Amino acid sequence: xxxxxxxxxxxxxxxxxxxxxxxxxxxxxxxxxxxxxxxxxxxxxxxxxxxxxxxxxxxxxxxxxxxxxxxxxxxxxxxxxxxxxxxxxxxxxxxxxxxxxxxxxxxxxxxxxxxxxxxxxxxxxxxxxxxxxxxxxxxxxxxxxxxxxxxxxxxxxxxxxxxxxxxxxxxxxxxxxxxxxxxxxxxxxxxxxxxxxxxxxxxxxxxxxxxxxxxxxxxxxxxxxxxxxxxxx
Length: 233
Known about the structure:
Distance between the termini: 25 Å
CATH class of the largest domain: Alpha Beta
Strand order of the largest sheet: 4-5-6-7-8
Order of helices and strands: HEHHHEEHHHEEEHEHHEH
């Protein structure tokens, strides 16, 4: 397994809590923290998400326990909150996080769409923008009738409208839905909508931010040709 040890997860936990306004539900942290560790393989990610592997959750729980013991966070019934001491630790040890966040403001809706297309193509999918009013779709092949992945990029406009599109696509073909948000402050609003109005896709949707897409794009671009070699049949 290429999973990181618990100590290396501590700062990412604090970063995510800062990004979501100081408090977050643990079940969302389990998935979003995966983005901080590109060494985790696709096979391992699948095992983590479908519950076949418990080691990732154990590592996060262990890291959370250490953070709580050191007064960096408070854990209450699956909800983790960062303390003043935790905020100070993020400011002292991860000053680059703020810079990355600021850079994300220069990314446009079209930039993210193009990045998603290139990521999909690097992973062996047929990718297309503005397909039947969806921002980005991926198919196994261009001729495939089924859309395997769908992305709604939300930089402005009606968030519930984007979620409704994703819900419709999931119900039609069990397409994997992704919501991509321009800022971290929209995360809590999206989660509230999922909890109260879009429960049908709450357990299957993946929510990402512009900075996360940019990180994936940069990493995939650097190894794109190698990935294609692995995907050749």
